[in-house]
Design a protein that fits this description.
The protein has 294 residues and is of the alpha+beta class. Helices cover 57% and strands 14% of the residues. It is elongated. The protein starts with 10 loop residues before the first helix and ends in a 5-residue tail after the last helix.
Amino acid sequence: MTETYEEFDFTDFQRQVIAEFRANSGRVGGMFEGSTLALLTTTGARSGLPRTSPLGYLEIDGQPVVIASAGGAPTHPAWYHNIRENPAVTVEVGTETYQALAGIPEGEERDRLFLKAVEQAPGYGDYQKQTTRVIPVVTLHRVDAQTRGLGDFLVEVHDWLRAELAGLRAEVDAIIAGRQAPADLVVQLRAHCAEFCGALSKHHGGEDHGAFPMLAQRFPALAPALEKLGAEHKVVAELQEAITALVGAYMPGVSDPVLLRDELARLTAQLEAHFEYEESTVVTALNALGPAPS
């Protein structure tokens, strides 16, 4: 009787391949003789435990990739479901081990990479013919790269916004302390506020319409965090409008500068919490998307 894909248990086979790989500096014989293999360790979507899978390893235009072919099976392999929940992976190839984020390109990019993968390893084309599912290509982005990336640029923008907001608060403190002619300070404050608020709006607009959709597509596990960040942008925008109105209506000797200072303090606290959460969730993924603008 012919054994079907569903009936075949790969567990022992995979254990043997993993043991041979690690015992021979990444070299495996038999059906894998001459092929470049990698061990991809993911975190189980249900168990939360590390799961290691031996996979074919390709480099396409310098980009490491693995293919979720599962030998042409009708369903995606378990490791692919794992990276949709948590893209952080460990890659072993040859004698090297590195940490990476697993990306899932779609559409034209996926098709381009798959065609090039088939050029290097025609068997993947045969696997695609055996199944109606679109076999995913998974890109592996090192997280220990030394190149300054988009995530590093994000932190630099945040630091500039932090400094600008600190400058605004210092100007309000100067008004309260009477250290400078009130009329001159208000003109300076309004110009500074307009510059800061314009930069913040542009920054958040770029994230909402550019960076965040790209991240959500490439790293599905980030979707909940990106949704939360997008909602926070709306709250920050409302607070920002209130402060802009206060600054615009401020009249020396009539308006209460303490109220303005308190509103700025509230914006500062909210923005800092937003920046910290954003930096903890998306910086590494942004770095994986590409280098920072020069």
